Amino acid sequence: MLEATSQANTQPTADTERIRAVFEAQRAHRWTMSRTTAAERIARLKRLREAIIARRAELADAIHADFRKPAVEVELTELHPTLEELNHTVRHLKSWMKPMRVGTPMLLAGSSSHVRYEARGTVLLLSPWNYPFNLLVSPLVAAIAAGNTVICKPSEKTPHTSRFLAQLVKDVFPENEVALFEGGAETAEALLELPFDHIFFTGNTRIGRKVMEAAAKHLASVTLELGGKSPVIVDETADVAAAAERLCWGKFVNGGQTCVAPDYVFVHASKERAFLDALKASITRFYGGTEQERQASPDLTRLVDPVAWRRVKDLLERSVAAGAKLEVGGETDEPSRYIAPTVLSGVTAESPAMEGEIFGPVLPVLTFQSREEVYAHIRAGGKPLALYVFSQDKRAVEDIFQNTTSGGAVVNNVLVHLANPNLPFGGVGTSGLGNYHGHFGFKTFSHERAVMVQWMKSLASVFFPPYRGKAQELASRATRLME
Q: Where in the numbering of this chain does the Aldehyde dehydrogenase domain appear (predicted)?
């Protein structure tokens, strides 16, 4: 069972009859959708784009009402990436949909081979609360581009954005093409009982396992966009000031509630003090030099709900009690769900801050002398969704890539790989299964159908039974010539 959240008691009971009816309507319509042309799919995407642009102010208000996210951050992290995904897909969809010709071996001379991209069918999108617009609409774009019918379920933790999305979907699409159901865990569970052709889930690893288990009952394919502790390595050659500034932005944007946020930093021992001082300077420049200024800053997103606030506060307090030092921050305010942008030094691998993904504005800093120490630590945990390296040494960067794995990686910056629709976005191992964005998203929501067409008499007939005499000798010689 998917567990309920703190807001579940405000959610209506799942209307299982209506969910089933919409699912059946979409399943009946899926062949019509799968036969749509590139022009028809592009027209749908353009309608979606126009509706989003017309309601951008309404979207910003909804997200701010849910967790005080600044309007500029909404534009930069929710709206712009989604519109870029839409525009990129509209530009390239016609070429993506074309069958891809592939080679044919000599033994099969007289035939041709190609790969067709076909819609998977009826798909389910289960999206999270931390980027409630982008992380629902971006995969929706890919699912529509591939010709699927789609049912969406946004998170109940961001009810204002959920209502915005429900109205947006209703106004742009007929229900037998795209539908959205609000609600809590009961709604998600009712949806997961249905035999979808594909399930796309964004959330934490624990719930991802439950989604995969539900999909297995119907042998549905899955894409799991999960999380994990994304490490940062700042080596002795790094530009410390630039590293601190970019990490300060990447860690504290969205209140630290980002699946690819820098979760902790390994800084070379020779650079520790300079790096910590640069982090403090960046926090002062971004959010204010005093606690009063930071708490009054309109640029700091709040924790999404009291449960998240208490979890991060407890993690912070236990880490300090275990010996971590507060370099900056540490203040909290329960009524506003505020936690100050916080940097911890003196952190060890055993610190509570290193137990799991923080998902809040707390940055632990550890030191290292050799990269082997860092490799051992990263390998001991789950495979991260992202890895960030700050270095001016290309050989060191290559060595890091050779000795670690992650869903994605960035050198001398953070988070920005998500903004490139030409790159796949996804995890590996405990941080996810499958990927999307751009062409990769189109392929995720498509079945790659292998097709071979025999136009002439097949040379393979010389290998038909009976396997003896001259036929056997000819077949043996022919196959060896082609090896």
A: 11-450
